[in-house]
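DM from R.C. (forwarded with permission)

"hey, sorry to bug you on a friday — could you get me a structure for this? deadline for the figure draft is monday and I only need the backbone to look sensible"
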Amino acid sequence: MTSLVGACRADGTPPADATEPPTAPSVEAAPFVAEPASTPAAPTVAPGPTPPDPTLAKTQPGAEPAIAAADVDPEPPTPAEPTRPRKVLILGDSLAATGFGALLEKKLDAHPDVECFRKGKSASGLARPDFFDWPGEAKRQIDARDPDLVLVIMGGNDGQDLTKHPKDKAGKRVSWGDEDAWKQSYRVRVDAFLAGIADSERKVLWLGLPKMGLRSLEAKLEIIRAIQKDAVGALADRASYVDTIPFVTDDEGNLLAEARVGKHRKPQQIRAEDRIHFTMSGSEYFADQVYPEVLRALGIADAAGSATAN
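My reply, with the result:
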């Protein structure tokens, strides 16, 4: 429908611009057609402009819908979600109980978005529940700390017979010499331990054991690492496994004796004389290598602000 925008011509024909968009109403008097003098009549007033149809406001070019301010309720601002530090729980054997674990905990606690806790027990593992019950202790720690991420490093003491749990009356001892039975039984223990610490809201970061300089021990650790890695992989996105061997070896796979550590200008000795344990410098070096892996698992940036991918 087209609105008339001006008065008709004297001959009754519409003006040439009758199809153009409506303009403001004219305030001048409209012209009229005069009748013969013998028959005077009241002047005929030509129709004035037709008021714009409000239903066409959205379709005519250049028109903007008129919205009454009273009809629009401003949306209240959405309150920001409260933030809290991401909690990390470190569990493990002497590596967690001493230098490396303590220094990693200190580094993580220094991050503004991380809160770290640690429980370590020297000479422990999953092979000797009669000595230390890791599944039970892990549950107690998780109940107390409610961590977002559990970091595990253990297994260095597990290359031995598997003893039964004192409460497991049906259990039996499994000899390290019975390779197939030992591998199957150890996998069951790793699976059970993981089931107790991982869920949909809490992830696990399992650190593979670093390479050792004692050949007989390293041969055992190769078996243990493989079982742990497979068990962690079975949890898909609920857990991840980090191979730490590249952290402590050169490009040829040889064990590093020295490395650049922290602010020291010269390379520092990172292994103790037994080529198994770390020196304090070695513990600091190993913690520096693991630290970004923890942040990556948490999906947060490092303390300096550089992005860390998930």
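R.C.: lifesaver. The first helix runs from residue 94 to 97.
me: no worries. Helices lie at 94-97, 99-110, 134-145, 179-197, 215-233, 280-298.
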